[in-house]
Structure formats: C-alpha cells, structure tokens
Here is the input.
Amino acid sequence: DAGITQSPRHKVTETGTPVTLRCHQTENHRYMYWYRQDPGHGLRLIHYSYGVKDTDKGEVSDGYSVSRSKTEDFLLTLESATSSQTSVYFCAIIQDRDSTEAFFGQGTRLTVV
Amino acid sequence: AQKITQTQPGMFVQEKEAVTLDCTYDTSDQSYGLFWYKQPSSGEMIFLIYQGSYDEQNATEGRYSLNFQKARKSANLVISASQLGDSAMYFCAMREGRLDAGNMLTFGGGTRLMVKP
Here is the structure.
C-alpha cells in the first residue's frame, strides 16, 4: 500500500471555526489532490498540487484553501467552517504525469454543527 | 460541462453474470488516462484498472476489462462473472495531461452496483 495518511480521521467542529486537514505521504509523489465526497455527487475536486508551493483550484474550491510547503504534506484549510462543508474528504497522490494509478488516503469524516 | 459522466446511478446484476458500467468523458487533450475505482461500503477507494489514451488494446485485469472507444469518448467497465463481493460504488476518473493543467484528476458521480444471489 502507498504510504498516505490522512489526519484526523474524524472531526466534529462548530460553524465558524477554522479546520485544517492533513494529507501526509511517504512516497515522494509529485501530485496531490483533495476531494470531497457527498451522496449523489461522487468525488469532487477541491484543490490539487503539482509541486511544492504549486497549487491550483478544482471545481469546488470556494471556502477552502491549501498549502504545500514540502513534498510530503498537503494541507486543506476551511477558514470558517459551514454546515455545507460537512462531508467525507479524501486525499489522493499520483507519482508523475504518466502514472497509471492514483493512491488514496482512508478519508476524513468532517461534521460541522 | 461535466468532464466525466456516469449515467447509471444504480444497477442490479445477477450473480455470475457479466455487467457493463458506462462512462463517457470530455477532454480536448490528446494525452489522458482513464481509471476505474471501486468503493465498498467500508469507504476505501480500490484501484481496478487503467487505460491510457494512446493504448491501442483494451485494458484487462482479471475479471475487469475496459471497453475503450476513443472516438466516442467512452470507457466502459465490464465485470465478468459477478460476485456478491462486487456490490459497491464504482467510479470512473480521468487524468488530463495538459502541461498547464497540473495533471488534474476528475471523477464521475459513480454507479452503485448491487449483485443479486
């Protein structure tokens, strides 16, 4: 299994509070992704990174920011959590442009109350 | 516009029969890759199969095969000899290889497959 760890695995937070989710990899893969999964919507891309300090927005980036200060860590921050951000969040990594497999973390279940 | 479309929200298949899960995609890139993932009720994402846009042969992995029709922009997953353990959500995904795209990886909405005994 690829060395990819998401933390925390579960979190309950209050509306308006900041939340940071961490994706950590030991594979030295270049590309990292954050998705949210909601019933009826599949996995929707929030942000992704193609290198240290190189990030770009996905299709549902509003309300989220990311940072990648080193290869192994990709952080997703909800600056002020809202109930609509209650979801399961997945991190994924891809080694290089021509990779034939993406590896996923176990997911983080976030509940905003 | 959606990049990946899975038109079957849910499907039933009889155990031991074959089933096809549909996936169509939209890209203007010449170089891209197509993936299928399985997500059982436990929630983890399990890689099944990959097809590159330049691959001339359809990909196969055990009971899984990918029916790749490039001109129609479709990449359907075929599962042969369905088993009860195949009951899960199935996601189609596309990696776009544009130099300015940062290797974006986007997913379809998924198909829930239920295998009947």
Q: What stands out?
A: The two ends of chain A are 34 Å apart (CA to CA). Residues 68 and 74 of chain A are 5 Å apart (CA to CA). The mean pLDDT of chain A is 94. Chain A touches chain B through 31 residues (CB under 8 Å).
